[in-house]
Amino acid sequence: MTASEPGRTRWLALHNSPHHSAETYVMQTGRLSELRISNDVRDNADELNARLDEDGYLFFRRLLDPERLLNLRREMLTVMQVGGWLIEGTDPVGGIADLAARSTEGDPEYTDVYHQVYRLESFHEIAHSRGVMDVLERIRGCQMMPQPQKVARLWFPKFTEHTTPIHQDFVHFQGTVENLTCWSPIGDCPRELGGLAVLRGSHKVARVLDHHFSLGAGSLHVDPAEHSELDGEWLTTDYEVGDTLIFPALTIHKALPNVTEDRLRVSLDNRYQRVGDPIAEHMLNPHLGSMSPLTWEDVYQDWGSDEFQYYWKEFGNPVLPKITEYLDKAFDEAVELARAGDDRAKLHLRRAISKDAMSEQGKLAGSVLAELE
């Protein structure tokens, strides 16, 4: 048996279990402790970096303007209500979901509504908020920029098998490991609504870990049990509107499941980098543009200002090709699991067909599903 096979055996056992879900992750990691608040050192670059180096994250209360976020929340949820995601006649701000409309990243019906949200000028503007930018530039000691590909996370209740699994951001967004993620709920986000949790000190592994297939958002997950050095505690909090969690690309984190009866979880999930650092080519495009065509011209069509249009082009960051090996490996694992009868893997293959039935993976997915039928 090779050194990697014990971990693979554990992965296969986990994925063949009927209880592989976000709740399983919570039970495996035990009680979640509280994030440390860093508002007290917000203006102290040395202490900010000391905490980031030790803990692998920084957490701030009300780093973003709550009123501005609540206005954005109303805009976003109004679009979602028009798209059929919310109960008709309810106040959009409440985010009361129509469970019949449940979908997630990878589903064409999700992308259709998501891309309407993505066109909102206010959604893109808020990534440039000075409150966030000042802290990031204090940490890195240089000019920073939001990456062009802004991300919204829109998660339905009672859909926990699709919860974002344990992972490192580098496998998805790439560029450099020095990039920083900023996550903020758009509205209050208590634990039961499914906020983010981080594994304290996990960035100290100082490398990209093996990721495996998962049904959850991103399709990749890490099993901390495969890595004995990952002995930190999981941290989260009851987030309030305006709160922001910042962490580098190697910090291990996950979403908690949305176990509410009927409320959508809405959040910002953006990446920032030093001006002049390399950026992965796919991060220059609108999010989920590979699911259905969406250009920046489409996004900007109804904007009232050009201040934040194509802003990244003035910096001339080196562009790196996307590393596909992480998702390619996950797809191969999904094929193996589907052939073994795993329904979640079969769903992943069906999504590959929906994305591009004529691609190499789309054709293989179609062939495997035809074999099984």
Number of strands: 14
Envelope shape: globular
Query: What is the overall number of helices?
Result: 12
Radius of gyration: 20 Å
Sheet with the most strands?
6 strands, antiparallel
Element string (H = helix, E = strand)? HHEHEHHHHEEHEEEEEEEEEHEHHH
- Name the average pLDDT: 92
How would you characterize this protein structure?
This protein is an alpha+beta fold and 373 residues long. The protein has twelve helices and 14 strands. The strands form four sheets. Strands 2, 3, 4, 5, 10 and 12 form a six-stranded antiparallel sheet that branches. A four-stranded mixed sheet has the order 1-9-6-11, with no helix packed on it. The protein is globular, with a radius of gyration of 20 Å. The relative contact order is 0.17.
Features:
disordered N terminus, 12 helices, single chain, 373 residues, 14% strand, 4-stranded mixed sheet, 34% helix, 14 strands, alpha+beta, 6-stranded antiparallel sheet
Present the secondary structure layout.
Blueprint: H1 5-15, H2 22-29, E1 33-34, H3 45-55, E2 58-60, H4 66-82, H5 108-118, H6 121-125, H7 130-140, E3 144-146, E4 152-155, H8 170-173, E5 180-185, E6 196-199, E7 212-213, E8 220-221, E9 234-236, E10 244-248, E11 253-255, E12 265-274, E13 279-280, H9 296-300, E14 319-320, H10 325-339, H11 343-356, H12 360-372
Parallel strand pairs: 1-9, 13-14
Antiparallel strand pairs: 2-10, 3-12, 4-12, 5-10, 5-12, 6-9, 6-11, 7-8
Helix pairs in contact: 4-5, 10-11, 10-12, 11-12
